[in-house]
Amino acid sequence: MENYKALDRNKEAGSIHSLLTKGMVPGIIYGKGSEPTKIALEDKILMKLMNSGSFYSTIIDIDVNGKVEKILPKQLQYHPVSDKLIHFDFLRVQENTKVNVEIPIEFLNQDKCPGLKKGGVLNTVRRLIELTCNANNIPSKLEFDLIESEIGDAVKISNIKLPEGVAPTIADRDFVIATLVPPTVEVETKTEEASEEAASEGAEEKSEEKKEDTSDKKEENKESK
To answer: Considering the domain boundaries, does residue 20 fall inside one?
Structure first.
């Protein structure tokens, strides 16, 4: 794993403004039972880490004064006007450190799913699942195989095989992750057809009413003569 060198802000004093001007972003490393460490990282390093994918669920090695700290990104702060990154919070972790992370869910065999082949739609309720686990056991993703899923089926957290020692943070219920719902195109088509039929019938009724009105007027004219 690559180490990323950080500036120790306790040793090299400088205002936050001066750091940002130099292309450095100030931040802090904190952890249970340890003193917080003020550091700064190059903006381009942070951008590289943020764009690598799974930023908030990846353990990163940070070199501070020759000592490598294992950290987990926790929070980023942006300027309210310029939207520029101005601060970050990193959590110091050990192998037995319990962490909460959000992990993406991937649905396999969508092209072979019976329900999708029949026109069903995969309605994803949760794209990320919050899990609690040891820092050394963070899964990169969760998977569910749709090979036997039919329209009307629901994918719940109990249907997902989790690695040993990994558990959902929501523990009081078997929550839904996705559902396979019926197609909506046919319903919309029928609704449109019904609207067209109603409009056509309305037009015919108005046409008949006009004919009746015209006939009545002709009869009145004849009687008046």
So the answer is: yes
